Structure to design on (352 residues):
């Protein structure tokens, strides 16, 4: 692990994995709080590393300190939940030592009920002897190849501290120094600009990435989704659809894209077209081992709830009621779904 001023989260993280690992290595990049004192309760392998605005350098140093056969990496605001601790222990009992890497789901988005709304896969457990390296000074990734196993274990991200300007400042400091941006840097700087609502500049960097024939297809899909969302927010519905249809060039249509197209038609009151795309979202099978970004809501309750709206507007109240009930199976306490139930009761479709 690499850490800095993580006194609010580090104990929670280390407590969740202390019985799973044979050694815990902490690389501190300049904490001024009690982070290192807390870590001393879990390990004596605590090292200082001078921060150089380069996450990969710090992570590669942390990996160089490892002495066991495999390396598990985490951030301080990550945890393994009890069910995933159990899965990890089972995996260790019959572990295949020919594996170079084990991927795990990374659950990073949650609704108000604690359900996962956004997840993707990351290489989490890697063979030390392969000497895999981290790449990128920010939004770094572990460059892995070989025999890779996609596990059903999940790491859960429970962020408490957040520095919204840290990453964009790092990028802009690099630009001032004339540092060359890799294609990945272009992508993630574009994402930072987008998150900071600097849309015109974000789209310039996104355009550079989309025009490249070397960019990862999953990243291009995410760019198309971001631009589509922006277009929806400013009522440019046709342009929003254009970017979703472009995302279909990179992979099969996904529920996230179909729902965006459906919403654009719904906003234009083109209800039959909206129904088509929401029903298409329900017909799709979610990829199981893809490393891409997925929002589970679009694969479950959102198309049902929106079909409820569409069919109600079309006068088919029974079908609207059916889809509201289907949405309710995923979110039984959702205020919108409960409101709809009362509405259907009032018009005689639903009885308490």
């Amino acid at each position: 692990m690499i850490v800095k001023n993580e006194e609010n989260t580090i104990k929670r993280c280390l407590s969740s994995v202390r019985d799973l690992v044979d050694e815990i290595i902490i690389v501190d990049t300049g904490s001024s709080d009690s982070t290192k004192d807390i870590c001393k309760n879990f390990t004596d392998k605590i090292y200082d590393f001078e921060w150089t605005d380069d996450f990969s350098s710090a992570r590669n140093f942390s990996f160089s300190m490892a002495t066991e056969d495999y390396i598990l990496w985490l951030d301080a605001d990550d945890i393994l939940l009890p069910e995933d601790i159990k899965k990890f222990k089972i995996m260790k009992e019959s572990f295949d030592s020919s594996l170079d890497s084990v991927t795990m789901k990374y659950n990073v988005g949650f609704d108000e009920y604690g359900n996962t709304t956004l997840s993707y896969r990351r290489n989490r457990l890697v063979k030390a002897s392969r000497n895999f390296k981290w790449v990128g000074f920010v939004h770094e990734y572990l460059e892995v190849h070989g025999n890779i196993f996609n596990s059903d274990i999940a790491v859960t991200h429970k962020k408490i501290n957040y520095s919204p300007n840290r990453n964009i400042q790092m990028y802009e400091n690099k630009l001032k120094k004339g540092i060359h941006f890799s294609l990945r840097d272009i992508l993630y700087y574009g994402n930072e600009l987008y998150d900071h609502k600097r849309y015109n500049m974000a789209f310039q960097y996104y355009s550079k990435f989309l025009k490249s024939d070397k960019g990862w297809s999953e990243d291009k899909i995410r760019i198309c989704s971001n631009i589509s969302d922006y277009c929806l927010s400013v009522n440019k519905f046709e342009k929003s659809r254009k970017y979703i249809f472009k995302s279909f060039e990179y992979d099969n249509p996904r529920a996230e894209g179909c729902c965006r197209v459906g919403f654009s038609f719904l906003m234009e009151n083109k209800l039959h077209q909206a129904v088509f795309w929401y029903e298409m979202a329900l017909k799709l099978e979610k990829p199981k081992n893809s490393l891409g970004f997925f929002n589970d809501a679009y694969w479950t309750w959102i198309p049902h709830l929106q079909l409820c709206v569409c069919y109600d507007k079309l006068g088919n109240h029974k079908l609207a009621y059916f889809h509201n009930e289907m949405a309710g199976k995923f979110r039984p306490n959702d205020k919108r779904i409960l409101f709809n139930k009362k509405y259907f009761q009032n018009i005689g479709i639903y009885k308490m």
